Amino acid sequence: MQADAQKWDAKYQRRSDAVMDADEFLVQWTHLMRGGRALDVACGLGQNAIYLTQRGYWVDAVDISFQALKQLRAYAQRRNLAVGCVAADLDYWPIPVMTYDLVAVFYFFAPQRMRELAAALRPGGLLVYATYNARHKSEKPEFNEAYLAPASGLSAFFSALEIVFDDPAAGDSGNISRLIARKP
User: Fold this and answer.
1) Angle at Cα 128 formed by Cα 126 and Cα 131, nearest 5°?
2) What is this structure's pTM?
3) Interval 121-138: pLDDT, tens
4) Cβ neighbours of residue 113 closer than 8 Å, sequence gap 6 or more
């Protein structure tokens, strides 16, 4: 955990505290959002957490980087927004069960955690997921394969959920897998 935290802290230390816009894939599905409690997995600087907070969610934003969370908290406080920041290694953090009305996962892939991500949803809860897939190796050969979704996408990991939208090969080169699913 220490090495990962240091790597990500160094990355976010070089960035300003200006939160970027929310991911367009999340914004595209706003019409399905009903408010409640949300989990932003591997939130980074928290642009998606901020977006969800502005749409009526209480958000738990989880990331390994203290630096990113510090910047997120400062940004949220300046705008009088409440975001719960949790510094944790997502390979080990105990994901709460049946707690969230929405789980957002962007550019984090850990196959051993997929069942827990689905279990974190309350009935009717929405999963919004986008991450790099195996095709990403053609663009970034140095990228660690362990952090890439299969080329077939994410739907096989969430068979217990109702798949609303599935695009296993999004992006200009098909290197992003996107999924929207709802817990029955």
Assistant:
1) 155
2) 0.91
3) 999 999 999 999 999 998
4) 90, 91, 95
